[in-house]
Amino acid sequence: MTQVRKFGRKSKHNNLILYIAILALVLIFSVTTKNFFSGTNLKAILQSMATLSVLAFGETFILSIGETDISNGAMLSLSPVIFAALYMRDVPFLPALILGILATLALGLLNALVIVKAGLPSFIGTLGVSGVAMGLTRIIANNKPILMEHQGMLKVFGGETAGIPNAVLWMAAMLLIGDFIIRRTRFGRNLLCIGDNREAAMIYGIRINRHVILAFLLDAVFVTTAGFMECCRSTYVTAGVGEALVLNSIVASVIGGTAVSGGRANMVGTFMGALFITIVANGLFMFAISPYLTNIIVGLVIIVVLTGNALMSNREQELKRT
């Protein structure tokens, strides 16, 4: 079993390009804009990246086993929408919250079942579940924002503690939990073993289907948390609020060192990937650049960083062979 424990270890140079890119962006934007390095803007960056980070942490678990979840963005607002709609109709707090959470967990389980039981590729299976989540949230919300009447939820997820936004604290907590699971638990090592080589994982006695199901359920927990974080930033819960975050959650994880093919995962790297994406968007916003042009620039910068990481990784492999 000693080989299993080696899965997921990263090269000391694995994220060097990403760290250099973040440092360069901070220096450039600090010099060329007036308020980029201000406390107010840095706080805004952390708040802006919080939801994306937590969503990407959940995605990292899925990528680690060589699968992909493209339903997380559509699922993100499901729990908050159900909770807010039920609570507005005088359903007590705890039952409304439990039903909302269970709904997202049910879709997470559905994601896993269409993969392990029906044998569908994860991209296709989660695409179908994404459509289900989109439809449910819009039907429940009647495609309109719902007032979040419970002040406690607004404070817990959208308030501040000692001047620090609670969303940032949630992001830090979920990072610690995700990193602990993937690096310090047998379950995390098993996920990496499955992603690296499923045949070897079966030989080691790892129950593949069970771990895939648990990975998607764990992903759903992170999606639910991200959903309440995002929807409690304002007093209204909006259906479909996370649908634009799907690709960025995958990119943040991959930029941070998680392998799309599985077998390697890095939660801290995922955090840094989300930070990188947010810094680029924030800096371009300060230049008053069109959102459409911003999308092009962000995409090109991401391609450059990913290419740099790939070239460095290939170079390291060549050096090892020699």
From TrEMBL:
Subcellular location per the Swiss-Prot or TrEMBL entry: Cell membrane
Keyword Cytoplasm applies: no
Keywords: Cell membrane, Membrane, Transmembrane, Transmembrane helix
GO cellular component, one term: plasma membrane
Membrane topology, as annotated: Multi-pass membrane protein
TM regions (residue ranges): 16-32, 44-63, 94-116, 123-141, 161-182, 212-229, 235-255, 267-286, 292-312
InterPro entries given in the database record: ABC_transp_permease
Primary location recorded for the protein, binned into one broad class: membrane
The keyword Transmembrane helix is annotated on this UniProt entry: yes
Example GO molecular function: transmembrane transporter activity
Superkingdom, taxonomy of origin: Bacteria
Protein name, entry field: ABC transporter permease
